[in-house]
Amino acid sequence: MGFYILTYLCIAVFIGATGCLIYRQISLPLHVRWEIYPVQHETTAKVAYGGSYMEEVNWWNNPYKSSRFNELKYMVPEILFLRGLWKENRSLWRLTFPFHFGLYLMLATFALMLIHAILTLWGPAAFTTGNALSSFLDGLIAGAGWIGLVLGSIGGLALLTKRVGDREWRNYSSLSDYFNLGFILIFFLSAFTSAFLYDPWLDGAKTYTYGLLTGGQALNAYVPSRSIAGRITIASASLLMAYIPLTHMSHMFMKYFLYHQVKWDDVPNESGGLIEAAIKNKLALKPTWQAKHIRADGHKSWRDIASSTPKETK
Amino acid sequence: MNTALKPSDIAKPADSLCHIAAGDLLPLPAPYEDFNQITIPPLNPEKIKNIETSLDDTVAIGIPRPATKEEEDALVRQFLSGLKKLFEKENNWTFLQPFILSMEYCAKCQTCSDACPVYETSGRKEIYRPIFRAEVLRRIYRKYLKAGGKITSKFTGDIDLNWTTIARLAELSYRCTLCRRCASVCPIGVDNGLINHEIRKLFSQEMGIAPKEIHDKGTVQHLRVGSSTGMTPPAAKDSVEFIQEEMEEITGYKVAIPWDVEGADILLLHNAGEMLAWPENVGAFAIIFQAAGLSWTMSSEAAGYDAVNYGLWYDDVQFSRVAVRHADIARRLKVKKIVMGECGHAHKALTVIADRLLTGDLNIPRESAMVTLADIVLTGKIQLDTRKNNFPVTLHDPCNIVRAMGIVEPQRRILRKIAPGFREMTPHGVDNYCCGGGSGFAIMSGYNFAQWRNLVSSRKKFIQILNAFVGEPPEVPKYVCAPCSNCKGAIRDIIGYYHAEERSNIHYGGLVELIVNAMVGMKKSIIQFDGKPSWEP
User: Fold this and answer.
1) What is the least distance, in Å, from the CA of B252 to any CA of chain A?
2) Which end of chain A has the smaller Cβ count within 10 Å, N or C?
3) What's the complex ipTM?
């Protein structure tokens, strides 16, 4: 039961920490535009060369358009296959793609195991006795799990080697960078060992996942936490889930904000619109910058300061 | 100290953290190999007696050395106070979210390094890596401003904060042209160029430290006198009068440059540097707009005849003051739109960045001259004989117009129509390389900074230009079209520095000059090669 409690706690930390991260981002004030082209939600013709709506005469007379389809066309391969890295840094892609794809497959495996558990609990009776869907799902879980474990282990080892062995990386790496990689690697290697020695069809992992939905009531006698490798796998997977949102590794999902709210944020400010209202609100803020030419005293607003001319040069 | 530097080394005492030796720089092709053994000339010891010079071979700011330890400590405290403000919405709402995201999510994968022309051409000097200065700032922030940072920094990356760190970081923020090529290749979307921008802001807005060319002689002079060139309104009018006369010689008819026409459709904003250094650019705009029958005006009000906004590079407050001034002039003139002349940073400043600053009747629509000109040229509003531009032409993409605004094709459509010898550089468009004069470098020349720029930051552009004309005989005149004043200044300087006019017959100019050069009915050619007209009447 101890492992289940640990996993529940870690899930709670993950949800709480991720929620905080997202809340922090959405509660940050409107910022000035800082997009970089190509902006992928532009029209197909413009995305091809990086053009923008500002290429049109009197562009402000045209309705602002944003193509979700074009965005997805870019983002899906970017998220799944790291296409940006493939284009810009092929040698690193060879190391990091297996690592990231391995992690994705682990997430996918967990999601499939949850589906399996849900169907076992609340699905048709035939599912529990082994129908076609059950067999198909078993195959998917084993396939995704094994491929993920192999790719993740190889990628993790490759990235750790790169970080230790490559001077360009080593000089910028801190203990936390090694720890983070080492942590993930412990998960991959323990899971690999556990699966290889005791659980080739990941039945134990499925049982554990089932137990997560039933408060620790397993379907059958096998419990993966009985082996050392299984215990390490459960502990490291749980702790990793809690740890990721506390580190820069949350770029896996925080990338959304980097792309959508900065790199591709090209929404123009229209008279009477929400953006204009937000700008007016921000112009009332009172800065305290100390350089003399700013002439901020904590009482003057951005609006006051922007409409003044400094007497002092410094 | 040189090759194996770590971010923490920025705090360590040394006469110089980085030196570029002869032969270190990215080699130039023939016939410029003789420049491959040339490096940055040493700083004049008399001139640098009392300023900080311990970063590398050049000086951009010239920060006075503190006289006492107490002064040093006070400056360190000021720095930390400024750094804290970068994370506060009251002080930095303008860039808070982009800044926080870039500070927190870098995976240190070094993909940005290979995209940086300064890092590459310098012979891959560690301090010029986009991540170097960003990582220094991240470590200072985590150690000195985050709770428990002194302990956790042993785990997350340590650094010492002292006057040396700060003085070097300030200088180092002026070794990046803010071209944001690094940000465009980052797989996560982190923008180390933005972090550099924020470092500059911290120094200017909290400590009053900035290069005099962009602050004292730049934004301050712009707001006080009317132009960063120092040109007053009467002087601007005089210059334009002279330009009109020059243009009349070219066209054979009267060219009128309208001033302060209330209710005109267009307020044309030029970089005032054009009036002094490239008056033919201002004149060419007038010829085209007049021939196309546009309703337009220029403003003779202080700041209204100078589109520049150097605040974009280092100070949000100065930026806001200039942008508000520009918009207010347009508002009072009751124009329908502002058209930005051939000035890249002014394009981005007023069109994109100020878009979330100007409200109500100050939010006058802004359009790029590339777009206005493409409409004129491609809809047949002027008569053109493209045979007149019968020489090789290549196009430089100003980062602020192309990568930062996505205005890529209009200028190309024009060139495809008017320049039969047009060819692209490699790479081009949104993948372009900076001219090396970005973020103020084109106008900074104190100490030996101009040599550093010509040898390091503009080197990649020079190689690109040479490659664009490979296969053309040296005696054939070639034209680099640079539709941006600062880019044009940087390209002028590299052509001069490397004797490219003498050796390869390379010339440069704007886009409007090429258009006028192809216009039917001109008496004289506006483009001259070695003092000779590019076409004979």
Assistant:
1) 31
2) N
3) 0.96
